[in-house]
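=== How it folds ===
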Amino acid sequence: MTKIKSYWLMKSEPDVYSWDDLVAEGEGTWDGVRNYTARLNLRAMQVGDEVFFYHSNIGLEIVGIAKISKAAFPDPTDPTERWSSVKVKPVRKLKRPVSLKEIKADPALADMELLTKFRLSVSGVKPEEWAHIVELAKRPT
């Protein structure tokens, strides 16, 4: 039986770790997450799941798509091994970023966890939300 791919959104402050940083590394470790719900999301991720890379605080926009390259393992920044991390690889930069303002204004995205659980640094994305955002990124600016 083939596992159905899941979709996620991961937030990062671009002045700390940006899309360009991930691209330059080729593969990054998503660590330092200290929220129980986000930890559950990290632990649910499987190799091949796709991720929106979201620039938080500065930019406030989805800028790229990455893929989980290694499922959950103990966070190397946590000596207690209570927290988890995953590895991600860049897939592609979006043709144009999709801003938080645009997402908030779109009724099709009203229930997106980015909006309903806005403090969460790692959140789930429904397949229909994923497809809608991918289409928004193709539209001219």
The chain has one domain: 7-138. Strands lie at 7-12, 28-30, 50-55, 61-74, 84-99, 122-125. The CA atoms of residues 52 and 65 lie 5 Å apart.
